[in-house]
Amino acid sequence: MIHHLKGQLKEKNPTHVVVECNGVGYFVHISLHTFSLLNNSSEEVSLFTHLQVKEDSHTLFGFVEKSEKELFRLLISVSGVGASTARTMLSSLEPKQIMDAIAAGNTATVQSIKGIGAKTAQRIILDLKDKILKVFGEGEVFISQNNTNKEEALSALETLGFARKSAEKVVDSIMKQTTDPTVETIIKLALKKL
After folding, report:
1. What was the pLDDT predicted at 185?
2. Contact (Cβ atoms closer than 8 angstroms) between residue 145 and residue 190
3. CATH of segment(s) 66-140
4. Residue 76 contacts residue 86 (beta carbons within 8 Å)
5. Tell me: the pLDDT tens digits for 111-158?
6. Which residues contact 184 (CB under 8 A, 6 or more apart)?
7. Where is this region: Domain I (predicted)?
């Protein structure tokens, strides 16, 4: 309904802004990512918007980047993910990090966001993996072979009885030190350090 707003930035907070367009002030909910991209001055701003219409409210969400708006819309299309959860996700991680995590099937990254449990993280990845690649294209989303190797190594270490968090710290340090390690290499090195 309201595709975008272009007007004077009257108020700026980490969770919302007020944009005045021709004498009308629009209260727009934003993510921390959008907040970081807005200037502090009361100059003219342009925001892509998503209007959420409910029985008891009309809520406007704003985004500086069109790609963030598209990602927001994809996230709220997932069952169990509401607008506030999607905004929390976009405030916790950069949109690019979320897209990469979903495309790579990295449940741990998605689950690291406050309020996202294991089942929701898996549902988000299952529902959006193909859509992310279709909407943003494979050039936009980085799927690292290392990520799948890392996940396989972590699940193997979990099966061996190691706690995921401690195993993940060790595996992360191995990934930084070694170029293109195989699953076997990661596991062997991790076993020495755990």
Report:
1. 85
2. no
3. 1.10.150.20
4. yes
5. 888 888 889 999 999 999 888 877 776 555 545 555 677 777 888 888
6. none
7. 1-64
